[in-house]
Write a structure and sequence with these properties.
By secondary structure, the protein is mainly alpha-helical. It folds into two domains: 3-392, Sodium/glucose cotransporter (Up-down Bundle); 418-491. It is built from 19 helices and no strands. α5 (73-103) packs across α11, α7 packs across α8 (158-206) and α14 (320-358) packs across α15. The termini are far apart. Mean pLDDT is 86; it is low at 482-491.
Amino acid sequence: MNLLSVGLFALYLSSLLAIGAYAWRRSKRTSEDYFVASRSIGPVVLFLSLAATNFSAFTFFGFAGAAYKFGLAYYGIMAFGTGFMALSFYFIGKKVWQLGKKHGYITPPELIGDRFKSDTLRTLFLVVMIVFTLPYLATQAIGGGIAINQLTEGEVSYELGAVVVTVVILLYVTIGGMRADAYTDVLQGALMIVTMLAAVGIVSSGLGGFTNANERLATEWPDLISRPGGGNFFTPQIWISYMVLWIMCDPMFPHLFQRFYAARDEKSIRFSMVMYAPITAILFLCPVLIGAWGRLEFPGLIGKEPDNILPMMVDTFAPAWVLGIMLSGAFAALMSTADSQLLVMSSMLTRDVYKKWLKKDASQKHEFVVGKLLVVVLALLGLGLALTSVETLFETLTKTTFTGLAVLFPTVIAALYWKRATKWGCMASIAAGELTYAGFYYEILGGNLTYGFLPVVPVVLVATAALVLVSLVTSRTTAVKRVASDDVSAS
């Protein structure tokens, strides 16, 4: 175990705790400040916070692992789909910010429930967000376990590594809330970018240069440089599916949705939209290249092993202390996502469950205390899931979190932009979408029903159709009842 690597990594963790302490000194003891930083996050911090929050352990480990299996075509699916997602960020984020500022919303379900005057819809929306965010939270602890295990050359187990990352996140999130979350994201975002670019340079140099590495890949593994990729995975239907998945799913991540409330003004959201696509194009290329090049040095990895390919490649070609810096970048990615997920799930359970149903007269200070306690509970739950996970990061997210949250997209768009949408239409949309998704997930519905697309495509189509049809019927019924009521009053 290289002590310099461990020392640099410890310095990084200490910096996060120091930032958390600084944020605590600037914070107010209210739920609004703890959960959305008193709606004061400016353009640069908001952009780096959105980017760092969305670039998770999946970016470092899952991207590289998927590229190891499927090849360079994975870059197009991830970069273009996520880049276009910036448009939905703006069109959703702008309206969410406006409504949050006007009505004092702190959580996503508050907006949906208030828009349709329905506690049932609000609760349903909450349950879906919690259920499908927990697996995503677990992947951050999984990534932390992988990183620490690699950093210490196996002397610290994966399980203990997952515990360490969970404890550190708990400390600074509990101390400083959204303010600490956003401030640490600035450091973490910068560290991610620098370490990813450095990792590509180090690995390509070790392989004889960028050109030589790609020429070797084309000769030894030609399927990894083709559009279909390894195993002919990336068919046109799969490409379309992933574009739909990223555009519709990512804005539904509750930890991103809540950041729209935290923006200082509309300019901050517009700046984030403009900058998001180029940073995505640059950053996502790095782990994909390293993952594909990994076949040249470590052919034959199976199961969860490809998720380790990025640190394995850096460790092979770089001095031992460099791995500590690179893994700090990986930790920056996973921590900046996990802390946000803990915070937003805590806010939803505090505001949409505890205050809504258990203690309606809870003060902001009382919510502040409850929110902190729930952060601890959720962190331990996510850790438990991580320690029992048997799937790769790629499989965990594409099979669970992404598709499950994408079901909420039609409801959010309807809430923001379609006046004729009704609570019945939204509830039917969510129920129909999730039931269809469950049918595919548990193989009750045959895979041939997707016609080569990922399940997200038919799932979102079903959810959209249910919303439109039921809303049209129920809005017409409501209008008829209103007219009849007016006639009775007039007589």
